Amino acid sequence: MATIGIDFGTTYSSLACFRQNRTHVIPDNNGYSATPSVVSFTEDEYLIGYPAVEQMNFDMENTVYDIKRIIGRSSNDRSTREMCEQFSFDVTLSEQTPKVVVQYQGTEHQFDPEQIVALFLGDFKTNASTYLQEDITGTIVTVPASFNYRQREAIKKACELADLGPVQLLNEPTAAAVAFRLDSQLRNNSTVLVYDLGGGTFDLSIMKYHDSIFEVIMTRGDDKLGGRDFDTRLMNHVKENFERLHHCDLSENKVALQRLRQACEKAKFRLSTAPSAPVKLPHFFGNISLSDTIQRATFERLNQDLFDRTKTLMTDAITECGISLDSIDEVILVGGSTRIPRIRQMMRETFPTLKLNCTINPNHVVAEGAAVYAAKVFASCNTNEQLSDWIVQDVNQWALGLEDSRGNMVTLIKPNSPLPVKSTHYATTDTDHQTTMYIGIYEGDHSWATRNELLDYYILEGIQPQPAGKVLVQIDFELNREGMLTVTSSNLQTGLKVHHDTQTSRYEQYQKEIRQQQRQPQDSESQVAATTGESRRKQKEAYIRLKNLLNLVKLNQGFPSVEKTYLEIKDWLQKNPSASVREIEFRIEKLSKLSK
What we know:
Elements: E1 2-7, E2 12-19, E3 22-25, E4 35-36, E5 38-41, E6 46-48, H1 50-56, E7 63-65, H2 78-86, E8 90-92, E9 99-104, E10 107-111, H3 113-132, E11 136-143, H4 149-161, E12 167-171, H5 172-182, E13 190-197, E14 202-210, E15 213-222, H6 227-246, H7 254-271, E16 276-285, E17 288-295, H8 296-320, E18 330-334, H9 341-350, H10 365-379, H11 385-388, E19 391-393, E20 400-403, E21 409-413, E22 421-428, E23 437-443, E24 453-460, E25 472-479, E26 485-491, E27 497-501, H12 507-519, H13 525-554, H14 560-575, H15 581-595
Parallel strand pairs: 1-11, 11-12, 13-18, 15-19
Antiparallel strand pairs: 1-2, 2-3, 2-4, 5-6, 5-7, 8-9, 9-10, 13-14, 14-15, 16-17, 20-21, 20-23, 22-25, 23-24, 25-26, 26-27
Helix pairs in contact: 3-4, 5-10, 6-7, 6-8, 13-14, 13-15, 14-15
């Protein structure tokens, strides 16, 4: 019986286990402790890790990387579109979520980001089982603390598709702190700050460690800030120099830009130990070669505002906790980007009396902590005295709530609530003889519900007709230790209870469709076109119905609540011309109430 911890990173991933009272990093099939988060599709197979990186040099369009940056994201999100434009592989944004388009086994395939991640996770499980010569009975997969509900849900789906078995999610900074505690580097009754700057995300957690309890009290982060963004700044700088010198435009040359990105990433690595680094690419643009030299000072100048943003998030979090910088007893640096000299200088200047704790390799400290936690949760808590008393008390980053009849956000679970947590809200009918109640579930901090992220919605039926306000419905939100949400609605008039598990709703059908796609050959072009055409027809019909309803509701704008909802949806409609049928139907349901 073996348990493992997986740190699936934007650029590199790692795998570890806990045995004989210590952690062991499990190397990949090529002997490396960190595996590039890259998969390449060929005529015969798919490659993962360093073989995929090698294949990228010959086939960039069918090599997928940085998939963590778009998993769980909406196609309508501007930052998603901007990231997809930088990829050398194709991504279609015609549906609600992005889909990766590659040629695989002679035909075109479209994969959800969850499917791509599942390939990595499944490979890690197989590798671990082979290495340990045991079946894997439990896995901890880490996620950025800044990941929202949709992103966490997508990672869980990827774990299901990879057939990992029992799985729990753990925030990356928390996992790092667990690893340092195992290494006896955390003092009792200490306040710990974890600064986690990786390839694609930045996380910051402040926690108290006392009597074997890890109590997270604050988390902050940015899931669009990391080493990849530093690479992009450097790449654009070198690109502009080359274009200016040779009077050319590289904007549409994806192959050249990907080669340049790889070269700039290598230069960034070198600048962590050297004052300058060369960027050289033979035959970069036709017969013209690229040759440039980057000074460390130039790299720092290009990215100083991004470095400063991490500091601002950090100091704001400390202030919000009601503590001072002097109250921090330990500072742990996690993530490959913390090797950047300017980052370490900034942290030393912020905490001049503390020694920065970076003694465990930042590339796999998160995986090691996850492995320790896996042993605690799944296997060794009854047999390993070293772990038996450990308790991890994490928090959520984002507010969760409902939309009331006036369109306001009713927060049930506040940010930084200790997990698990449960909260209850009582709602009443707002119109006479109402027989159904719309319940929309949102995540975010805006006072208007529709300005936040819509996680899911459902209709509570079976309400007996009564005057407005006479029917009382109890709505319970329950967030587990992984940050996964379950919503329960109870009609207190009839006793009818609806258990709505947002993490599994409509997922059985989703999983069936994904696995069917993996087993079956790709549909013919005519079938794909027909399916796409049908989806667009339904979207167009729903869009027209919503616009017609808007015109009808416009006549009732004299009422403040009606006017506010009308303006919200009108604004949303203008900004989301490619919205999914589900999102449009959701707003049709709201407007239908107002038009009666």
